[in-house]
Each structure stands twice: as structure tokens, then as C-alpha cells.
Inverse folding.
């Protein structure tokens, strides 16, 4: 089946440093979504990328979708303590009339104030 | 506009008992997904349902687990004869359609099997 690999598993940074998490799929994706889960909370949708090479920004967050639609990244500039949480990518796979979202294992970000 | 609701939020069961987890999707959403999350693990897809239909249950264990989404009422994830390995957080998500659209997650049910 489809697999989505996400690295790193953990990342600890000092407040103000940048952070990046990477996502790779073994097969071409229809789209990719990113979610954030705060400790003890539930996943919250951040963004969806659909087009090859697409780049989207949300304030200090930059999301990229690779040209081959097999990888993606989330970059946070100048992290803040409010950025703490686990960031998941979720690859969308379309086969015929079926569509399936497969989540990566996530990257847990901790920020030292 | 209420979000996805799940109850109970915490559930403790002894080995061999049954666990029933409920999920009410957002208003206007007819697609429901169940996921299981173990500590420090990702979200494992279990089952995808529309009203009265199971669309994809490829992530459901073959035994003891079942899910339904009746015409009226919440979606139910049922685990029979629970074992310690079933202890996890179970999240429900909903969406207005089933293809390539964001999913809205509920707060989850934390199941502990003693």
C-alpha cells in the first residue's frame, strides 16, 4: 500500500530558530495536506497543496509540494513557543473513483524559550 | 456551528469488555473517518463511512472491530472483547465530501484497557 515517510521524528529548537519537516511518498500523490496536533489535542487542518511545485505561505509557515508530487515540506521561520506540537503530512492518493488519505508519523516540535 | 463531537472523551474498560465510541460529524458532513493513534505514533486509518455505507475498511482489524454510520444518529466504532493492545486514542474526522478535501477532527476518545 501507499506509504508516507516523514522526517525528522523529533526536533527541538531554541525559540527564534527555523524548523523544517519533510514528507516523502513512494508513489505520486494527488494532493498533500498538513495538520498540526498540539500536545493532548486533536489534529487541526493547516493547508492543502494540489499543484506540482506549489508553494503556499501562512505567516511564518511555508509549505512546498515537489515537482514530481512525491514530496513536500513545511518550514517555520523564527519559531515561537506557540508552534509546539506534532506536524503531520497526509498524502492523498487517487485510484479510479477511490481516494485515500495516508498520514505520516509526524514530527514533534519542541521549542525552548 | 458545532464541530465534530466524540464521546466519551475517556473510556476505561477491563480486558474482555466491549467499548463503544461515538462520533457526531459536523453539520452538513456525511463522510466519517476513524483513526487510531498510539503514543508518539501517527494516525492509522481504520475505516471510512458514509451514511449507512462502509466505503473503505481496509485499516480495520479483521476481528473484534466494527463500525457503522446509521441514517440517524452518530457513527459508532465498536470494539468487542478489548485487549490491552487496544489502548489508544481514537479520533473521528468528518468532511462534506470524500475526495481531496480537508478533514475536521473531533477531540478523540482515549481508551484505556486495564
Amino acid at each position: 500500500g501507499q506509504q508516507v515517510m516523514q522526517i525528522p521524528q523529533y526536533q527541538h529548537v531554541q525559540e527564534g530558530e527555523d524548523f523544517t519537516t519533510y514528507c516523502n511518498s513512494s508513489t505520486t500523490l494527488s494532493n498533500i495536506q498538513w495538520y498540526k496536533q498540539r500536545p493532548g489535542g486533536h489534529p487541526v487542518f493547516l493547508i492543502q497543496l494540489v499543484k506540482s511545485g506549489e508553494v503556499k505561505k501562512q505567516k511564518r509557515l511555508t509549505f512546498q509540494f515537489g515537482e514530481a508530487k512525491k514530496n513536500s515540506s513545511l518550514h517555520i521561520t523564527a519559531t515561537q513557543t506557540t508552534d509546539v506540537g506534532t506536524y503531520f503530512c497526509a498524502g492523498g492518493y487517487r485510484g479510479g473513483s477511490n481516494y485515500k488519505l495516508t498520514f505520516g508519523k509526524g514530527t514533534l516540535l519542541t521549542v525552548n524559550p | 456551528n458545532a464541530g465534530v463531537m466524540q464521546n466519551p472523551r475517556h473510556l476505561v474498560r477491563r480486558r474482555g469488555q466491549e467499548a463503544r465510541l461515538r462520533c457526531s460529524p459536523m453539520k452538513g458532513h456525511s463522510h466519517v473517518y476513524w483513526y487510531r493513534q498510539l503514543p508518539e505514533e501517527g494516525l492509522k486509518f481504520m475505516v471510512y463511512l458514509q451514511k449507512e455505507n462502509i466505503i473503505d475498511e481496509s485499516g480495520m482489524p479483521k476481528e473484534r472491530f466494527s463500525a457503522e454510520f446509521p441514517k440517524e444518529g452518530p457513527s459508532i466504532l465498536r470494539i468487542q472483547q478489548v485487549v490491552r493492545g487496544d489502548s489508544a486514542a481514537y479520533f473521528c474526522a468528518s468532511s462534506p465530501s470524500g475526495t481531496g478535501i480537508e478533514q475536521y477532527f473531533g477531540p478523540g476518545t482515549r481508551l484505556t484497557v486495564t
Notes: The two ends of chain B are 37 Å apart (CA to CA). The longest strand of chain B covers residues 43-50.
